[in-house]
Specification:
Strand order of the largest sheet: 1-2
Radius of gyration: 32 Å
Helix content: 55-70%
Shape: elongated
Number of strands: 2
Number of helices: 13
Length: 271
């Protein structure tokens, strides 16, 4: 009723939109409440979900004092988030704390609650042996938070152990997937890199045995060319290809002497 019938558009301030301005940000600045962004959009005929263009002017309606208060009580919401943390309802802590930050982006207590919640969720996932998901949660925690670096390393070590076992079982694709995820979290992890090179190497060797040389080279090209195993296996592929070429060539000669020309063509094309 206030918006439609009692708030007159003449009662407004002019605001020039700056780079990186958003409706929620402007609403937070002028009304101390980002949820009143709909009001700015309404009186400036802006499409829902679209941000204003830098350089344009907006009319910001002047609100009566009774409407110019935040729609949440930050003190109460902080207490609610603290209680949820004590009750180990960590995902609800995130919801409440993030809502507080919408109104007060610099609220340190809300930020600290979010960090604590992410850390605890990570520990829970780690306890359930869901290590990739746990690491993802831990990465939302500041590096100086007590215990987080150790927790991340513990999860990574568990994933490395899993990758090594998969490699022993010759489940190369699964081993590569696990080691690849580790590198997503820790790009300099030497053990993960070695596991990847070893997996590609062993795949290459198996393909040589099956005489699938083209695929062997394709697999080896994905590994680090400076790895000794990769170098040797690549060299073995070319040696095996040369040896196999000689076999087909000599078969062709035999067919040629017997004037079996179609067989000659087949063997020498293979050569």
């Amino acid at each position: 009723d206030y918006l439609k019938n009692r708030l007159h558009p003449k009662e407004h301030l002019n605001y020039k939109v700056k780079e990186k301005d958003t409706l929620k940000g402007i609403s937070k600045k002028f009304y101390e409440d980002p949820s009143k962004d709909f009001l700015i959009a309404y009186f400036n005929n802006l499409e829902t979900g679209k941000e204003p263009v830098p350089g344009t002017f907006l009319e910001l309606p002047i609100l009566g004092s009774e409407f110019n208060q935040p729609m949440i009580d930050i003190r109460i919401e902080l207490k609610k988030a603290e209680n949820l943390l004590q009750e180990k309802r960590y995902r609800e802590v995130l919801d409440v704390s993030e809502k507080i930050l919408e109104y007060d982006r610099l609220n340190k207590k809300a930020s600290d609650l979010i960090i604590s919640a992410y850390y605890q969720i990570g520990l829970e996932l780690s306890g359930q042996e869901k290590y990739p998901e746990a690491i993802k949660m831990f990465k939302n925690v500041t590096s100086n938070y007590q215990g987080v670096e150790e927790a991340i390393q513990h999860a990574i070590n568990k994933e490395l152990f899993k990758a090594k076992n998969l490699l022993k079982q010759k489940q190369y694709e699964q081993a590569l997937a696990v080691a690849g995820k580790i590198l997503d979290y820790d790009k300099s992890n030497k053990t993960a890199k070695n596991l990847i090179n070893t997996a590609f190497c062993q795949q290459g060797k198996n393909l040589i045995i099956r005489k699938n040389y083209t695929e062997a080279l394709n697999v080896l090209s994905k590994a680090d060319p400076q790895c000794n195993c990769v170098k040797k296996t690549t060299s073995d592929v070319y040696k095996a290809k040369k040896k196999q070429a000689e076999v087909h060539f000599l078969k062709g000669v035999k067919y040629f002497l017997n004037e079996e020309l179609q067989s000659v063509i087949k063997e020498w094309e293979m050569t």
